Amino acid sequence: MKKASVLSGFICLFLIAALSACSTTAKRKAPEENVDRSGRAPSRIDVAAEAEILLNAFEKAVLRHDTDKVLEFLDPHYREKEFEDLYQSHKGAFLNDFFCGPVTRGDQNFCLVFGEIQEIQRMGIESFPDESRAHYIVKSNAHEISTHITVTVRKTYSFGVMGSKGYTQVE
Asked: Is 139 in contact with 117 (CB distance < 8 Å)?
């Protein structure tokens, strides 16, 4: 009787341990599409897809005339040099000058008043390793301009392993 009780307890513990190991392994396993072929590091980001997501959100913020949200999309270096230094963080002046370009019917350049933008239509996007460039037609009640907006890609992560460089001692 004692052997049966010990045996059933052992089997129960074995099953619990086996199930725990399975669930732990499943949680740790990374999806194959996020790992490069060597299995060492996350795969590269799809720059075009990420730029598309960013631009969709940017366009919505522009159409809502959400000044603060639009400013959140600025590249940090561009924000520092242009918005903070050159425009001294004057939101209205900066955004009115941000949407400048040649008038679509005519030969002059024009800057739209940010709060008067009625439509922003992406005409195309070119992707490069470090940036994507979107071509837009932006309209207010009075004017329609053609402009380009650049999406920068900042590479901030790198992955790899390093050895102990001889610090391990074998006895």
From this structure: yes
Counting the structural domains of the chain, the total is: 1
DSSP state of 64: T
Residue 164 scores a pLDDT above 90: no
d(CA 51, CA 63): 18
Structure tokens at 12: 């129960």
Give the Cα separation of 16 and 171 in Å (integer): 38
Q: Could you tell me if residue 161 is inside a domain? A: no
Domain membership of residue 138 as a residue range:
47-152
Domain membership flag for residue 6: no
* Token digits of residue 41: 């590091």
Domain with residue 138: its CATH number is 3.10.450
Task: Supply the pLDDT for residue 91.
Answer: 96
Q: What CA–CA distance (Å, rounded) separates 61 from 119? A: 12
* Residue 70 near residue 76 (C-beta atoms within 8 A): no
Q: The pTM is what? A: 0.65
